[in-house]
Amino acid sequence: MNENRPVQKLKLRYKLFYVLSVVALGVLLCANFSIIYTLVVTPPEDPASVMKSVYIVMVVGFFILAAQALLIFTRFIPMLGKEAAALEEMNEQIEQLSVYDDLTKVYNRHKFEDVVRRELENVRRYSHPLSGIMFDIDDFKVINEANGYRAGDKLLASLAQFVSGKLRNSDYVFRWRGGKFIILAPHTDIEKAAIVAEKLRQIVGHKLFGGKIRMTLSLGVIQGAEDDSMETFLHRIQSALTGAKSQGKNCVVVSRS
User: Fold this and answer.
1) If I label 251, which of 69, 147, 237, 244 is the partner at 20 to 30 A Cα–Cα?
2) Are the CB atoms for 158 and 116 separated by under 8 Å?
């Protein structure tokens, strides 16, 4: 309440000044009308001196109008600034909603499509290596049923942020669906990506999430090829993950084909 008092006083001063300026303009208009009316009805012996009064009243009126314009301008510009800031913040929120997964706060599938197309183009044009890792929480349905779906959501969010913290700034993490995620690692060949995947498998397997939930990951690793499209890249990385699941889960399958 105390912080708002100076603002309220300033607003009151603005209003008071504006009302007084309007009243003053009204008085000046009436005075000007009276002087001009007098000039027309009963012309004085020295009309030039009377016209000086008219000019003086007009100048004072212009000054009051200028003060009103300045008042409105100083009030209007900050309002525009606030609206612009609010609009910018809204645009940022919309952009975040369009590229980030709401639950895990990592990139979503729409962002994946943009990034993988761009990075595959770099593979074709510049022969830059690009590796992908798809991982899935083993028996995630069982974890949900045992701990509740709310705990499962928290687990997904914690896992996404935990994995993101273990990667380079140049790497990307995407929520695919359910307990599945994809990592894109530009400028990384398949051997290095396999090492990253194995490290993730081990550190996640040894961590307690939420103080009580332990889980394992199955991971599939591939390297982007020059003739890869987004569809073939996805097909190969999903096949690698399926291979990890079929080998008993909690393992890494590296597909070099």
Assistant:
1) 147
2) no
Neighbours of 170 (CB within 10 A): 10
Measured at the CA of 215, the angle between CA 248 and CA 243, to 5 degrees, comes to: 25
CA 103 – CA 100 distance, rounded (Å)? 9
Cα-to-chain-centroid distance, residue 198:
33
d(CA 214, CA 206): 7
> Are 64 and 122 part of one and the same domain?
no
127 in the same domain as 74:
no
Q: What is the per-residue pLDDT for 41?
A: 66
Residue 100 contacts residue 144 (beta carbons within 8 Å): no
Concatenated DSSP letters for 154-191?
HHHHHHHHHHHHTS-TT-EEEEEETTEEEEEEET--HH
User: Looking at the structure, do residues 116 and 230 belong to the same domain, yes or no?
Assistant: yes
Report the C-alpha gap between 255 and 249 in whole angstroms: 16
How much is the mean pLDDT over the chain?
Answer: 85
**Quick check: is 85 in a domain?**
yes
pLDDT of residue 1: 47
In a shared domain, residues 157 and 242: yes
In a domain, 226, yes or no: yes
